[in-house]
Specification:
Chain B: InterPro entries: ExoRNase_PH_dom1, ExoRNase_PH_dom2, ExoRNase_PH_dom2_sf, Exosome_comp_Rrp42_subfam, PNPase/RNase_PH_dom_sf, Ribosomal_Su5_D2-typ_SF, Rrp45. Chain B: Keywords: Cytoplasm, Nucleus, RNA-binding. Chain B: Its main location: cytoplasm. Chain B: It is found in: Cytoplasm; Nucleus. Chain B: Belongs to the RNase PH family. The complex is a heterodimer of chains A (236) and B (453). With 236 residues, chain A is α+β, with helices and mostly antiparallel strands. Chain A folds into 3 domains: 58 residues, OB fold (Dihydrolipoamide Acetyltransferase, E2P) (Beta Barrel); 78 residues, OB fold (Dihydrolipoamide Acetyltransferase, E2P); 82 residues, 2-Layer Sandwich (Ribosomal Protein S8, Chain: A, domain 1). Chain A contains 4 helices and 16 strands. In chain A, the strands form 4 sheets. Chain A has a 5-stranded mixed barrel. A 4-stranded mixed β-sheet of chain A has the order 1-6-7-3, with no helix packed on it. In chain A, helix 3 packs antiparallel against helix 4. With 453 residues, chain B is an alpha+beta fold. In chain B, the strands form 6 sheets. In chain B, strands 1, 2, 3, 4, 5 and 6 form a 6-stranded mixed β-sheet that branches. In chain B, helix 3 runs parallel beside helix 5. The longest helix of chain B has 34 residues. Classes of the chains: A alpha+beta (236), B alpha+beta (453).
């Protein structure tokens, strides 16, 4: 397995030499990999990645979101049905979000959420043939950053790969721009980024910079960020 | 399947940006996205891109029996296909309301404005005429579908050649292409549409709206016009009030835009013809190599070649081939696979040589011959439109009968439509054929058919 890290893998490949090292190790397989009996098979074509100690996944270009348990996603409320909200998270089926799954929510004290509003939520249930279920609290009943997103700012749609890249890299376009411009951001694993700046101009500039950074190296991102900041501040 | 819903914050933001005269792609209010026109290997096949909106038009012909009411006229048939591939909200099969709207707009623009001389399509009066069929396939929807389709349809019609026919007595011979050269359709003029999106109760307007802008707009107005400032179609839909001077302003802007697009169409047609005559390569395969798919300049940003080892894949491929019973001998040249590099992570552009790895981001605009940004800044366009206003007035004393759009006519129509028209979804606000001249263009003599092209 070690020898194919960083190389191109295609669907149907079997990852070998998995338990060669020390008898039994616990392996976490991410997107693009699947357990097939005693071995691990590749289901997407891309580049195999590894993170210590034993996390493996395949980097590939994808736009369609497939729900996975534990993902933080940004959803748009499409309907209220009884005591649940129907929330679009970009998956094949809309997810459900209970009225009670908010911090300090009671039967009387319902969250003020209308159709078209955005929520930052965590996926509690994500099974194959089953409706995904969202929550906006952790297991201690606290919001921990989840919840209703303010009705201002902008919602950006991008590829799943870019979102992963933004969340994985410590030094990305967001940190470079954040040194000069104040903004709030919420990144959903479903390829949606909520962004809020002081002015419309900054929001447009930052969202375009984020979209462009997808295919750039770190140095290029740095140059671009500098240019964006300069032009926003009136130089150039 | 339904399209992804529009969130409240997106709607609010787009409206706020428009109120500040900003657009998401940095365009000015009256500026088009870059337009790319490509022609296929076969005649009558045209692919048009406006930004990320992509449309493919294919023209075909067939001999049919004419309608009894018009025994010596050919038939022009338009068909628009909105496939789910273009946008998840489009359904396959039956035509949606939006599909009917686009189809009808194209029919009014192309058929009712008589841009194709239908009488020249007659082979034998009352018995045999040519039917010209234009199939417009929407490949990707990112707003402004009507403009994109109209460019594709008229460019495909101008590009098309029908087989030559000889009639001797009762006998009709349709010559195959190797026997006699095919003949072009007689295109009288090139009508094109320009879409305006209205916001803030008709107070602000935008040219060439994107999908996002179309979703939040109050309504839109489609102006069909040709280079000679002859109005062929006017279509207003949505819930808004249109003021008289807004209509006149839109027509003036449209006239300026259409001139530029017509030049682009003629230019690309000439290039394609020249390539065909001189025996150079032509068709999509050639063009796509020149123009990278997706005008979005995202795709033009390459990172430095990242070397990715593909030897194991090559070997796997070889073993797979071997397992199939050695039918295909596949040579895995190690020296060559060593050079395989992925230029862009994610898009997987692979190549065995070292082409295309340059970073173009810092170098500013790439000027591609077929890609044009229709206007450089706002100030010129406003100047242009102010000049055009005076031009309209001059046209009023034009001696030519076929120039129908005079300032008096315009005023008369507008007055008859009162100061403001409350328009309902997909109807109302259409031009009356008389004053805007959609229909009575037919009075013009047939003899000068070729004059406009």
């Amino acid at each position: 397995m070690e020898d194919s890290i960083g190389k191109v893998v295609i669907p149907g490949d079997i990852l070998q030499n998995l338990d060669e090292k020390k008898g039994k190790i616990k392996v976490t397989v991410g997107p693009g990999l699947i357990r097939d009996g005693s071995h691990i098979a590749v289901t997407k074509s891309g580049i195999l990645r590894h993170r210590e100690p034993s996390v493996f996944w395949v980097d590939c270009h994808q736009k369609r979101y497939v729900p996975a348990r534990g993902d933080n996603v940004i959803g748009i409320v499409t309907a209220k049905q009884g005591d649940v909200f129907k929330v679009d998270i970009g998956s094949s089926e809309p997810a459900s979000l209970s009225f009670m799954a908010f911090e300090a929510a009671t039967k009387r004290n319902r969250p003020n959420l209308n159709v078209g509003d955005c929520v930052n939520a965590k996926l509690l249930v994500a099974n194959k043939d089953c409706e995904p279920e969202l929550v906006c609290i952790d297991s201690y009943g606290r919001s921990s950053g989840l919840g209703i997103l303010p009705n201002e700012g902008f919602l950006l749609q991008c590829s799943i790969g870019l979102v992963r890249q933004l969340l994985r890299n410590k030094f990305n376009v967001l940190t470079f721009l954040g040194k000069a411009i104040q903004y709030e951001v919420a990144i959903g694993m479903n390829g949606r980024i909520w962004l809020h700046c002081h002015t419309v101009r900054e929001t447009i500039a930052i969202s375009n910079a984020i979209c462009r950074s997808e295919l750039m190296s770190d140095e290029e991102v740095q140059i671009m960020s500098k240019k964006v900041v300069d032009s926003l501040q009136g130089f150039e | 399947m339904k399209d992804h819903p529009l969130s409240n914050c997106e709607e609010k933001f787009v409206l706020a940006a428009i109120a500040e005269n900003r657009r998401f792609d940095g365009r000015g209010v009256y500026i088009y996205r870059p337009i790319v026109i490509l022609y296929g290997h076969d005649r009558g096949c045209c692919h048009v891109q406006i930004g990320c909106t992509r449309v493919l038009a294919q023209v075909s012909c067939e001999v049919i029996i004419p309608k009894q009411t018009r025994p010596n006229e050919g038939v022009l048939h338009m068909n628009v296909e909105l496939s789910p591939m273009a946008c998840p909200s489009f359904e396959a099969g039956k035509q949606s309301d939006y599909g009917v709207e686009v189809n009808r707009a194209l029919e009014r623009l192309l058929r009712d404005s008589l841009c194709i001389d239908l009488e020249s399509l007659c082979i034998m009066s009352g018995e045999k005429v040519w039917q010209i069929r234009v199939d417009v396939h929407v490949l990707n929807h990112d707003g402004n579908l009507i403009d994109c389709s109209s460019i594709a349809a008229i460019a495909a019609l101008s590009h098309f050649r029908r087989p030559d026919v000889t009639v001797s007595g009762e006998e009709v011979t349709i010559h195959p292409l190797d026997e006699k050269d095919a003949v072009p359709l007689s295109v009288n003029h090139i009508p094109l549409s320009v879409t305006f999106a209205f916001f803030d109760q008709g107070r602000t307007l935008l040219v060439d709206p994107t999908d996002q802008e179309e979703r939040v707009m109050d309504g839109k107005m489609v102006v069909g016009i040709n280079k000679h400032r002859e109005l062929c179609m006017l279509h207003v839909s949505g819930k808004m009030l249109v003021l008289q001077d807004q209509v006149v302003r839109c027509v003036n802007i449209a006239a300026a835009r259409v001139g530029e697009i017509t030049d682009l169409i003629k230019d690309t047609l000439e290039k394609d013809n020249a390539a065909r005559k001189s025996g150079k390569e032509f068709g999509f395969a050639k063009c796509l190599a020149d123009v990278i798919l997706g005008v979005d300049d995202l795709l033009k940003h390459y990172v430095d070649s990242m070397s990715v080892d593909t030897t194991s894949v090559g070997q796997t491929a070889k073993t797979v081939v071997d397992a199939d019973g050695n039918r295909v001998q596949m040579e895995v040249d190690n020296a060559e696979t060593g050079n395989v590099s992925i230029k862009v992570p994610g898009t997987g552009k692979m190549s065995t040589n070292t082409e295309g790895g340059a970073v173009t981001w810092c170098e500013g605009e790439e000027s591609d011959s077929d890609v044009i940004l229709l206007d450089k800044n706002d100030s010129t366009s406003s100047e242009v439109s102010s000049k055009q206003v005076s031009a309209v007035v001059e046209l009023s004393d034009s001696e030519e009968e076929s120039v129908l759009m005079t300032s008096q006519d315009l005023e008369r129509t507008e007055l008859s439509k009162s100061r403001a028209i409350e328009t309902r979804e997909n109807r109302g606000g259409r031009c009356r054929g008389k004053s805007f001249g959609g229909r009575n263009r037919g009075k013009r003599g047939r003899g000068n058919g070729q004059r406009y092209f």
